[in-house]
Amino acid sequence: MSLLWRDEVAIYLAPRKLAMVRRARGLKARVVAATELAVSAGAAGDLGPVLARLAGVLTDSAWHGAAARVVVADQSWARYAIVPWTATRLDAEGRLTHARYVLSDAHGEAVASWAVTLADGPPGHSCVACAMPALLRGALEDTLAPARLSLLSLQPKLVVAFNAFRQRLPRDDAWFVTLDDGSLSAVHLSGGRWDRVHLARLSPDPTIELERLRAFGTLTGGAGAPCRMFVDAPAWMRGGTGKGFEWLEAADGGLVHELALLRGMRA
Fold first, then answer.
1. Cα–Cα distance between 16 and 112 in angstroms, integer?
2. Which one of 76, 82, 99, 129 has the fewest beta carbons within 10 angstroms of its own beta carbon?
């Protein structure tokens, strides 16, 4: 079977939640399975419980034999840093070494052994570095293998959500914020590029978190007009206090949007 026609399964992993969507490929792609499950034993940063939950779900043949796109919660399994441009010419290995230094300076030695990905950028400009646990990919591949699922991509939620909405965002002086599973991830845009990244673990009260979001505008606004804030959040977190925020709705079509919609469900 051509890989172009192979089904795809999108999987979202968070410490206390697992969400999955299967999309059948063909002339008219369609969603054929979807589920969202709580992970009762989940704890921040602990991959074991959610992978055990995933392994249990994958005993169902409805999920077998496809390509898998996996999205992981930022606060647990991703760290970011803006890496400044250096006047010294560096090769690829040197750039990664510099990125590791910046990440460790921002997040501590705990990320020193993590796998680092450095985004491409034009000469003379800073770029974004992302670190994820080095053992994450292998653990996922071992969990997916019995169901004949091949790992097509592994990305943190902030990157996936930003790419899904980037065409709707202004290039300058705006925050893109995504909320879920007790965490907030945000990037500030300047010249169409990330120049700040902010992660925070949140309380379970969505009203408090919305008020904290309001304060975000002061991080860059100064004495001028407040910074615009574009927010991707589950519907249950929006309530009636949406004034001042520009809420983003996931458009129909594409695995990312379907998974975003699934994450937004609340029983």
1. 26
2. 82
Tokens of 33: 């399975």
Task: Indicate whether this model's pTM tops 0.85.
Answer: yes
In 3D space, the residue among 203, 174, 201 whose CA is nearest the CA of residue 185 turns out to be 201
SS3 80: strand
- DSSP string for 159-201: HHHHHHHGGGS-SSSEEEEEEETTEEEEEEEETTEEEEEEEEE
Contact present, 77 and 132 (Cβ < 8 Å): yes
Which of 196, 191, 230 has its CA nearest to residue 213? 230
The answer to whether the beta carbons of residues 29 and 23 sit under 8 Å apart is yes
Other C-beta atoms lying within 10 Å of the C-beta of residue 168: 12
**197 in Cβ contact with 186 (< 8 Å):** yes
